[in-house]
Specification:
The chain is an alpha/beta fold. It folds into two domains: 150 residues, Rossmann fold; 212 residues, P-loop containing nucleotide triphosphate hydrolases (Rossmann fold), CATH 3.40.50.300. 36% of the residues lie in helices and 18% in strands. The strands form three sheets. The chain has a six-stranded parallel beta sheet with strand order 13-12-14-15-11-16, with helices on both faces. The protein has a five-stranded parallel beta sheet with strand order 3-2-1-4-5. β4, α7 and β5 form a beta-alpha-beta unit. α3 packs across α4 and α9 runs parallel beside α10. The longest helix has 21 residues. The protein is elongated. The relative contact order is 0.12. The N terminus is likely disordered.
Amino acid sequence: MAKKNHHDSNLSTKIFVLDTSVILYDHEAVNSFQEHDVAVPILVLEELDNFKNGNDTRNFEARNFIRLIDQASKNNLINKWFPLKKNSLGKFKVVLDEHPKKINAEKLFGDAKFDNRILNAALYLKEENPKRKVVLVSKDICLRLKAKSLNLHAEDYETGKIKNADELYTGRTEILNFDLKVMSRLENNEKINAAELAIPVINSNHFFILKNKKKSVIAFYNNSDKSIRKVNNHSVFNIIPRNAEQSFAIDALLNPDIKLVTIQGNAGTGKTLLALACALEQRKDFRQIYITRPIVPLSNKDIGFLPGDVKQKVDPYMAPIWDNLKFIREQYNDDEKMQFKIDELIRTEKIQIAPLAFIRGRTITKIYFIVDEAQNLTPHEIKTIISRAGENTKIVFTGDIYQIDTPYLDSESNGLSYLIENAKNHPLYAHITLQKGERSELANLATDLL
């Protein structure tokens, strides 16, 4: 069999053109296409220049990408193909503001948008390389559709995406007709070797609802020692679990052997309230309690346009967390001493509530760290947060993967889904999906019917 020469091999590889949304999602995206070549339109660099200042993750991604290309280019001209890494098979280049001869997106769609010039860069590469497949990669659905209408291949950036959000790990299993004798042993708080039981083989910390007729027991399977034990249905900071799922969440949040917890569920299922109550319950075990959430401004405008100082600008976004803390405080209306303790925790900053961007760069040591609305984070942001964890820290992510406010993220590409899918078999991790709303019957109506 004849060996392929370098020219033939080059024709079999593709050219991927990345737009700004991909870089802001993952600055390492240029290294994710194996032997294929990657191009970035010059307009993308211009847009990244506008994003490089600030404390948000997109600012971080923009800065890191600019540094990455600067370090890789060295003495190379970036408008010519060059390898990003010493041993990389694929090459990289920046495409200048070229105009294709056949189909011109700016003439078709207008020249007012950068997107159309990015389309032109991809179309130009397609004309310049007629024997190679050119693919536009974008998190922007509309841009991908426009590309396909111009006979240009387009796809989403798949790195960090899970396969099917509807089949995402829930952390719980219900088993019917379970052995009554075993259920009685569990009710007596006996810890049982899972090998003795008729339960599915599971490689993760997992919760079970064991039923036999009208009798039921809720239990936790510890993947480290392969044992199963009863989950106690007890209150935390006067917050009483209203269903088995909430009891599972409390068990994971209080378990000292579990250092990473995710709670996923619809609005009103009690995710943030339970996380905050369990943090307060363990306040003596941690140096500080951080509660944070990413700021996603209305209509994706920067918060700078809002009136007031920094605190006044961000307080509206932190309001749901303060509401949960106020609700917990109200459970002690007859106990002024406990209310004073909660107030004192806030005054001394033992409890700190702040936007995620304000906590960037801190070392999280002996902290109970709660990240609310984690579905609005990218996989890279989730990784960055966890990588900041020091000794004796517990991190909790809560969110609803079907209620995303960040552009270019969806139920399959957001960081919370990515974490649940990839961490499920780790011994330090536990997850539970809350499905039953407990806020009010009226709130349940909205979830169920509308």
